[in-house]
Amino acid sequence: MRIAQIAPLTEAVPPKLYGGTERIVSYLTEGLVELGHEVTLFASGDSITSATLAPMSAKALRLDPSVRDTNAPLAMMLETVYRRRHEFDLLHFHLDYLPFSLFSRASTPMVTTLHGRLDLPELQPVFDAFRDVPVVSISNDQRKPLPQANFVGTIYHGLPEKLLTPRTDMTPGYLAFLGRIAPEKRCDRAIEIAIATNTPIKIAAKVDRVDVDYYEQKIRPLMAHPLVEFIGEINEQQKPEFLSGASALLTPIDWPEPFGLVMIEAMACGTPVIAFRHGSVPEVVDDGITGFSVTSMEEAVAAVERVKALPRAAVRAQFEKRFTARRMAEDYVALYQELAHSRAAELMMAAE
């Protein structure tokens, strides 16, 4: 198939810094190329891909201070894709609802993966207006706030099989927290769980500008405890050692997590997950196999001991079964083919 992947321009694909959506777009694009498809990636000019790159800005907009109006390159990207739409069998957008108005009126099949939270009230009129536009959810739970949306599939994220692998030479000896320090991620809970179980905890996390006050007021005082070690943000190369050395990844979230990429990163390293049962957690964590989903601090504390009995090889095996980039790409191809066939049938009926 001739497939267009249309990425955000905020970060490069893959991102040079933090950027969950752009990472997934990269893994999917490379997976589609490996499966033999003809893929064009519309993204920032500093993106790296084995597909055909259609550069829509000189570099990632977040890293380019010369761009003062970031909507202008985005508007030009949408226009460029629209003018080239006949070159493709399917257009796959990763821009939330921005393409809906223009591309829902086009004959080329399209689909949009929704990567973020959908429980915002301002989204309701948008999805009321565009009930027929096909969208993909990244967990079934993510769909709940928008029952009127035209969800055509749930496709879980995947990682390249060899991107993160277990370090079998390491003996797990601490708890891990990975990702962002933000109110909804509840790093404070992770520290409390570690203290309650008298277990060291290593925190590899970034602090976004918007969360600096929260970090200074709520989290930084907790870092003084002797069991706590704050590492800061880490890259892909550092994650296997960091995660393999942990007895469990703590994900004590307090929000409707759409997916939670850090959980499958841990599983790729054979590290089980202890996560609070919000959002996608029950779908991603196979209870008693890859970790435990809990509903209280008491359950989380108890799970720290229980998780030690889970075979780490079984955690890795479940990752290979459920969360590889190849599986993700194959799921999308099956959906693309279904959408292309349905659109062709619609156009044929309209012509009669």
Describe this structure in words.
- This protein has 352 residues and is α/β, with parallel strands linked by helices.
- It has 2 domains: 2-158 and 325-351, 3-Layer(aba) Sandwich (Rossmann fold); 174-322, Rossmann fold (3-Layer(aba) Sandwich), CATH 3.40.50.
- The protein has 12 helices and 13 strands.
- The strands form 2 sheets. It has a 7-stranded parallel β-sheet. Strands 10-9-8-11-12-13 form a 6-stranded parallel β-sheet, sandwiched between helices.
- Helix 1 (20-34) packs across helix 12.
Write a short abstract of this structure.
With 352 residues, this protein is α/β, with parallel strands linked by helices.
The amount of helix comes to 25-40%
Tell me the overall shape.
globular
Which whole number gives the mean pLDDT? 95
Contiguous low-pLDDT stretches (5 residues minimum) are: none
CATH class of the largest domain: Alpha Beta
Secondary-structure-derived class:
alpha/beta
Largest sheet: 7 strands, parallel
CATH topology of the largest domain: Rossmann fold
DSSP, total strands: 13
Q: What is the H level of CATH, i.e. the homologous superfamily of the largest domain?
A: Glycogen Phosphorylase B
CATH architecture of the largest domain: 3-Layer(aba) Sandwich
How many discrete domains?
A: 2
Question: What is the chain-wise order of helices and strands?
Answer: EHEEHEHEHEEEHEHEHEHEHEHHH
How many helices in DSSP terms? Answer: 12
Radius of gyration: 21 Å
What is the straight-line distance between the termini?
A: 26 Å
- Strand arrangement, major sheet: 3-2-1-4-5-6-7
